[in-house]
UniProtKB/TrEMBL annotation:
This is Transglutaminase-like domain-containing protein. InterPro entries: CAP/Cytokinesis_protein, Papain-like_cys_pep_sf, Transglutaminase-like. Pfam families: Transglut_core. Residues 111-178 form the Transglutaminase-like domain. Gene3D superfamilies: 3.10.620.30. It comes from Flavobacterium ginsengiterrae.
Length: 326
């Protein structure tokens, strides 16, 4: 076998082994962190305990994520009624940096002590603990995509923040704000629901729901148009690696009576696949075909279809599209 092929095979197997080992390590971390106290006197005490209990950077990065997600709750009232931004004066660059650090330290301590925060508090606390444990960590600010109205939205807003942490020679994407739970509009409150999928999320999935203000990731440009006009994917899609192959746009332009082809990877005929019509009634897809490791099916676009169409797999929402008449 040529030397080049041997090297390529070795690199591929080594990459698979590293990823498998990484997954193995972090799966056990949550069980240990769940037994931690809900409160520590200082962030230094928490970082010290994590440092003693876990040896690898991967475990420590996950431990920080898990502890914050288990114990810090999203402050929805603060989100609805944000505090006034307080400015400050300074006479030198050094004084400016000191005051910025003080504002950031206050934000961290407030989140840590009150056990409540919005995304700025989550990300600042994650970075603080990571850096105490010797991990390189950054805060990224940008736009997020969370509801149907975001499909095809014209404006990009800086309304969210997340982290990147450097582990095992790779930057890992982390959104601990979304890892701690979600807002249930039917109940009118936050629901605490730990979700591991926003730790080391696959960039393809992550950037379907996040758009950085810089417009780039690790030096590569990210398409603003693809983000705004792409379909809305849900947590189940990420959890089960349901890749949406078709349509590739989140905006479907149709005439009444058109049939639109959908293709989703990693589902089969054994799954129950349906959508909701404009009366919110479930409609099972007809004559699905297994194709290339997934399922292909068509949906008739008629007067029963509303402004949006959401595909469900086994009762879980997977992906949504905006329907536009030609």
């Amino acid at each position: 076998m040529p030397q080049k092929k041997i090297v390529l095979i070795y690199l591929l197997l080594n990459s698979i082994f590293i990823n498998f080992t990484f997954a193995q390590k972090i799966n056990e971390v949550d069980k240990i962190i769940a037994k931690y106290p809900k409160s520590f006197n200082t962030t230094e005490k928490l970082a010290e305990k994590i440092g003693k209990d876990f040896d690898s950077d991967a475990e420590r990065a996950r431990a920080i994520y898990s502890w914050i997600a288990f114990n810090i709750k999203y402050d929805y009232n603060a989100f609805l009624n944000p505090p006034r931004v307080q400015g400050f004066s300074y006479s030198s660059e050094a004084e400016k940096q000191r005051k910025i650090k003080q504002v950031n330290d206050n934000l961290i301590q407030k989140a840590f002590n009150s056990k409540k925060a919005v995304c700025e508090g989550f990300t600042a606390l994650y970075q603080n603990l990571a850096e105490q444990l010797g991990l390189k960590c950054e805060i990224v600010r940008g736009d997020s995509k969370t509801n149907l109205r975001d499909i095809g939205r014209k404006t990009t807003l800086s309304n969210h923040a997340w982290n990147m942490v450097f582990v095992d020679k790779k930057w890992r994407l982390v959104d601990v704000t979304w890892g701690q739970g979600y807002y249930d509009s039917s109940k009118g409150r936050m629901v605490n629901d730990f979700n591991p999928i926003y730790f080391d999320t696959d960039p393809d999935y992550f950037f379907a729901k996040h758009y950085p203000d810089s417009g780039s990731y690790l030096g590569s440009r990210i398409s603003k148009e693809d983000f705004l006009n792409g379909p809305l994917i849900y947590n189940t899609t990420i959890e089960n690696d349901y890749k949406i192959k078709s349509p590739d746009s989140g905006i479907i332009e149709v005439k009444n009576g058109d049939k639109v082809t959908f293709e989703i990877k990693n589902i089969s005929k054994s799954n129950q696949v349906f959508y909701l019509n404009k009366k919110n009634q479930p409609v099972k897809v007809q004559n699905p075909k297994e194709k290339r490791g997934g399922l292909e099916f068509q949906i008739l676009m008629d007067n029963n279809i509303g402004d949006y169409i959401t595909i469900f797999v086994d009762t879980n929402s997977v992906v949504a599209f905006k329907i536009v008449s030609k």
